[in-house]
Write a structure and sequence with these properties.
single chain; 155 residues; alpha+beta; Alpha-D-Glucose-1,6-Bisphosphate, Chain A, domain 4; 5 helices
Length: 155
């Protein structure tokens, strides 16, 4: 029974005003600009590979729940036709609390902008971890999405 609480999936959807393809392109080709768009993301650098190909690993510095932390993110899959990206996130706080942590981002075109869908699939190392919860990471993703959207709409 406790095993079920250790793994799961959470998701959220955020309406954006910017064109869906333009928003997707930030994640697909211009992630290095993220620290200029969101105050919660402080730094990003390529650890292995490049910014946009499967297998590439980036190192991120960010603030979540008021504390500065870092993690690495690896591109697992890219589906440009469906504006869908899959990442595995590890190191730092994530590795202290999770055996696996996968983030799936999909951007859907709508009549007035787009819809950004984040899905987090996770497996915790144990109950009562000290790392931020999957729901907290969804809230972080929502905030960053709104920051990017505001940047694209203003710019």
């Amino acid at each position: 029974m406790a095993q079920q609480t250790l793994s799961g999936k959470v998701e959220t959807q955020i309406q954006i005003q910017a064109p869906a393809a333009r928003f997707y392109n930030i994640f697909r080709k211009k992630l290095n600009h993220l620290p200029n768009m969101s105050t919660d993301v402080h730094g990003a650098k390529v650890h292995k590979g490049d910014w946009e190909n499967v297998g590439s690993v980036k190192h991120w510095d960010y603030t979540i729940e008021g504390k500065k932390t870092c993690a690495k993110e690896k591109i697992e899959a890219i589906d440009d036709d469906n504006m869908l990206l899959t990442y595995s996130v590890f190191d730092g706080e994530i590795s202290e609390g999770y055996k696996s942590f996968k983030v799936i981002l999909q951007v859907i075109d709508t009549e007035n902008g787009g819809l950004v869908k984040f899905t987090i699939e996770y497996e915790m190392l144990k109950e009562n971890i000290t790392a931020s919860s999957p729901d907290t990471f969804l809230a972080f993703a929502t905030k960053v999405t709104k920051d990017i959207d505001a940047h694209l709409v203003e710019g």
